[in-house]
Write a structure and sequence with these properties.
By secondary structure, this protein is an all-alpha fold. Helix content is 81%, strand content 0%.
């Protein structure tokens, strides 16, 4: 996220303080929109999705992040819910083409905030186990998508961890 903020600052020649303030407002709005989209995709209930978005706007994550500017975590949570929502939509509509996008979003999530990536992977592994245990025909697309997702993400993680700039990926303080 620092590279993103720096790029915006160089391209726009706006002060760093202004960019950070606008970035936090952007992340707040984007998180609410992503939560609305995710809940609506999962439940098809616009009222529940709207309430979820309102609760997100008033949540601990939003109120604290506005004051401490934890943009990496915020962007990662947005990316994580994009992955979850895309998985829901693509598995219901049998859109296997979106598997590449899922994998790419997972890699972007890893580069944005590795600790949130770990949480997302843990949730998706649990979902994969659940799908395997159900053994329904509707779950075959989801299982294939998650298998490709994990293959791409774990491969990227291993390669990235072996590179000099990725060696401190999960070390304390790194």
């Amino acid at each position: 996220s620092n590279l993103l903020l720096y790029s915006i600052q160089v391209l726009t020649a706006v002060s760093t303080e202004s960019i950070v303030r606008v970035a936090s407002m952007f992340c707040s709005a984007a998180l609410c929109l992503v939560i609305f989209w995710f809940v609506n995709a999962g439940t098809k209930d616009k009222r529940l999705a709207l309430m979820s978005a309102i609760f997100t706007a008033l949540s601990f994550q939003t109120t604290v992040s506005l004051f401490v500017y934890s943009l990496s975590n915020w962007l990662a949570i947005i990316e994580m819910f994009l992955i979850f929502g895309l998985l829901l939509i693509s598995s219901k509509r049998h859109l296997f083409k979106s598997t590449l996008l899922l994998s790419l979003l997972g890699i972007i999530l890893l580069l944005t905030h590795p600790y949130t990536w770990e949480v997302a992977v843990a949730i998706l592994v649990t979902y994969l186990i659940y799908a395997l245990l159900r053994k329904r025909n509707e779950e075959k697309v989801t299982i294939k998508q998650l298998t490709v997702f994990f293959s791409a993400n774990i491969t990227f993680f291993v390669v990235y961890s072996m590179l000099p700039f990725g060696s401190g990926l999960f070390k304390a303080g790194g």
